């Protein structure tokens, strides 16, 4: 009988499949431009954390693997293909974390699609046009959910990496993943675990991430003229 985390992961895989099926091929240029613009913004907002060796790897995982400018379709398809093996080998706690990681990634892409549709088509993306499109989406609940999911994935990873047997279990997937050509998926899982093991405690990292992204969200919805000002982050 399937467990609740296994069923939840299956649901996220179905949601992922529906999202990619509805997305034009190739990916619209406006969505690509938005993804790149946001990636640059995030790198700037967290440059102070990235220069600290303790946080650099985890920050790269969050900004590249969970919320990056690249196309995640191959990795997500890999997870779907090896799903039957994952539910047999991985503990429920890991399955739940993978499901939440997929959810935050899919939700982020859905939010990007909605925002890109409201950006001026003929002009480069600027802070003012981004902010106007962000407010026009009127999706505060989804934005709050996005931040909450990021925090949850981080806390789950921080808890899981303290259990050595789970990392050893994850390695059991290497052989079937390699044989099936699912390297993208395996690398994604191992990068996430390795980045949090290196950090040795994620409380400060996650608190900073949540505080800053919440502040950015509040300032965007409030119509602040400089919602991404680094000055605003001086105390976070």
Quick tags:
236 residues; mainly alpha; 12 helices; globular
Mean pLDDT: 88
What's the helix count?
A: 12
Number of domains: 1
- Low-confidence blocks of residues: none
Shape estimate:
globular
Head-to-tail CA distance between termini: 45 Å
Structural class: mainly alpha
The topology string of helices and strands comes to HHHHHHHHHHHH
User: Percent range for helical residues?
Assistant: over 70%
In short:
The protein is mainly α.
Question: What secondary-structure arrangement, pairings included, does this model have?
Answer:
Blueprint: H1 4-22, H2 29-45, H3 47-50, H4 53-66, H5 73-89, H6 92-116, H7 127-137, H8 140-160, H9 164-171, H10 174-179, H11 183-199, H12 203-222
């Amino acid at each position: 009988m399937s467990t609740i985390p296994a069923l939840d992961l299956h649901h996220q895989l179905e949601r992922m499949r529906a999202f990619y099926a509805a997305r034009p091929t190739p990916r619209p240029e406006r969505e690509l431009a938005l993804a790149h613009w946001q990636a640059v913004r995030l790198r700037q907002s967290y440059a102070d954390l990235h220069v600290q060796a303790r946080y650099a790897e985890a920050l790269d995982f969050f900004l590249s693997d969970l919320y990056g400018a690249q196309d995640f379709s191959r990795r997500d398809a890999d997870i779907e293909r090896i799903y039957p093996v994952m539910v047999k080998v991985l503990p429920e706690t890991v399955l739940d974390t993978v499901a939440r990681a997929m959810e935050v990634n899919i939700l982020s892409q859905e939010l990007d699609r909605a925002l890109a549709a409201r950006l001026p088509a003929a002009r480069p993306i600027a802070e003012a046009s981004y902010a106007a499109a962000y407010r026009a989406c009127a999706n505060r609940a989804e934005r709050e959910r996005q931040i909450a999911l990021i925090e949850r994935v981080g806390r789950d990873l921080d808890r899981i990496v303290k259990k050595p047997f789970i990392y050893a279990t994850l390695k059991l997937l290497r052989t079937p993943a390699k044989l099936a050509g699912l390297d993208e998926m395996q690398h994604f899982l191992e990068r996430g675990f390795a980045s949090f093991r290196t950090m040795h405690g994620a409380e400060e990292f996650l608190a900073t991430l949540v505080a800053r992204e919440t502040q950015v969200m509040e300032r965007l919805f409030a119509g602040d003229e400089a919602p991404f000002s680094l000055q605003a982050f001086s105390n976070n």
